[in-house]
């Protein structure tokens, strides 16, 4: 996985619904993360570089990809 992370609209909605964020250091997915979170601690690498899915989208960390047939 490499940033920016390309995800489908459905994946974005799932991440938002499940309150997941992404670590900008190690790219791990973190649970229990508000959609607009910034600087949450990553459970994988320990850095405080986790952002919520809305913040990640706004900052270009994730981009929405079209579904391929």
Unreliable residue runs: none
DSSP E strands, number? 5
Q: Could you describe the largest sheet, including whether it forms a barrel?
A: 3 strands, antiparallel
Terminal residue distance: 22 Å
Radius of gyration: 11 Å
Mean pLDDT: 92
Task: Give me the secondary-structure category.
Answer: alpha+beta
Instruction: Provide the number of structural domains.
Output: 1
Report strand %.
15-25%
Q: Which strand order does the major sheet show?
A: 3-2-4
SSE series: EHEEEHE
Number of helices: 2
Quaternary status: single chain
What's the shape? globular
| Percentage of residues assigned to helices | 10-25%
Summarize this structure briefly.
The chain is 22% helix and 20% strand.
Structure report:
Helices cover 22% and strands 20% of the residues. The longest helix is centred in the first third of the chain and has 9 residues, at 9-17. The strands form two sheets. The chain has a three-stranded antiparallel β-sheet with strand order 3-2-4. A two-stranded parallel sheet has the order 1-5. The relative contact order is 0.27. The protein is built from two helices and five strands. The radius of gyration is 11 Å and the shape is globular. A hairpin with a 5-residue loop joins strand 2 and strand 3 (29-30). The two termini are 22 Å apart. The mean pLDDT is 92. The chain has one domain (5-64). With 69 residues, the protein is an alpha+beta fold.
């Amino acid at each position: 996985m490499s940033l920016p992370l390309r995800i489908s609209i459905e994946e974005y909605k799932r991440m938002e619904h499940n309150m997941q964020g992404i670590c900008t250091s190690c790219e791990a997915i973190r649970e229990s993360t508000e959609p607009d979170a910034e600087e949450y601690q990553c459970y994988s690498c320990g850095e405080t570089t986790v952002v919520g899915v809305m913040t990640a989208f706004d900052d270009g960390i994730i981009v929405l990809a079209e579904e391929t047939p």
